[in-house]
Design a protein that fits this description.
binds zinc ion; six-stranded parallel sheet; alpha/beta; Rossmann fold; seven-stranded mixed sheet
Amino acid sequence: MKALVLEAYKKLVYKDFPDPITGDDEVLIKVEAVGICGSDVHGMDGSTGRRIPPIVMGHEAAGTIISLGSDVKDWKEGDRVTFDSTIYKLDDWYTRKGMYNLGDGRMVLGVSPGDYRRHGAFAEYVNVPQHILYRIPDSVTFTQASMVEPVAVAAHAVELTPLELNDTAVVVGCGMIGLFVVQVLRARGCGNIIAIDLEDDKIALAKELGADAGFNPKRDDIHKEVEALTEGRGADVAFEVVGISESVLTAIDSVRRGATVTLVGNLAPVAEIPLQAVVTQQIRLQGSCAICGEYPAVLDMIARREVNVEAILSAEAPLSEGAEWFQRLYNKEPGLIKVVLKP
Ligand SMILES: [Zn+2]
C-alpha cells in the first residue's frame, strides 16, 4: 500500500509500505479521511519524543471495513467506521473501573514513544481492534467523522468538569480543541462563554461558534473583563487548552472561589501554578486525558449539527501531498487550523 512515512525527523515520504497484518480480533479499514493532529506536527521534529521514526502517524481517521479477523462479530465488510485514537486493553484494572483512557499498556495509533510502535492511518489501510470501532451515522461524511476524535477530546474535558445550568465558562486557547470546547459547552447549557486567545481571528471564530465574548491578553486585562461579566466574582469554570505557564495562570486568575479549572493543554511538561491562590480560593485543578467513551455522543452531535466541525476545516488534500501540508502547518501558516488528507 501507499503510506506517508516519517522516515527520519522532519522527513515525511509518501511511498510503498507493507500492508498491515490484521489480527483475529481486528478489522482492516480502507482509510477515507485522516486528519493531521497538532501532536503529529509537533512530533515530526522529535521534540515530543513520541514519534520515533520510522512511523506512519495518524490517529484521527474514518473509513470503510474491507476485511475482518476470524474473531470479529457485529461488523461486516462495507461498514463505515471511525475509531478511538487509543487502543486499550479490555482486561485491565482501569478499563474495568471505566477509565480505559488511563489503562496500562494502552497504545495510541500512529505513535512510537519508545516502548511501542503502532502504525496509524496516514496510509491506504489501517488495522484496528473491533472494540475501538464506532459506526458513522449515514448523514455524517468521512471527513466529518475524521474530526470526531478532537471533538471527543473536548467533550471529555467538559464531561469531567462540574457544570451547572447557565454557568459562565472561560476557555483559554482557541485552537482546534478550544473551539470544540466552546461548542460543546454551548450544547451543554452554559451561559456566558468567554474565549481567550492571542490571535484576534481565532477569537472571532470562537464567537461565530458560540462564545459570547472574547478577549486578547495582548490588549485586554482578562481578570477585569471576566469580573465585569460575572458581577465581580469570576467564572464558574475555566478550560486551559494551551499548556504553558502563562495560560494556566490566566485560567486560574479568571475563576471565582471554589471553581474548577480543567487542564487540557500540555505543551510544556511543567507549568507554574499560583499555589496560594489555588489553596485559599479552594480551586480544583482537573486534568483531562484523551477520550473515555465520548465518541457516540459526539457523532450524534455532529449529525444533529450541534457541533460544526467544518468551521475548523482549512483544507482537504490527497495523502500524496501530505508532506507539503505538514510543512505548512509546521511553519504555522496563518489561518490554517485543520487539514484532512485523503488516501
Ligand atoms: Zn490528535
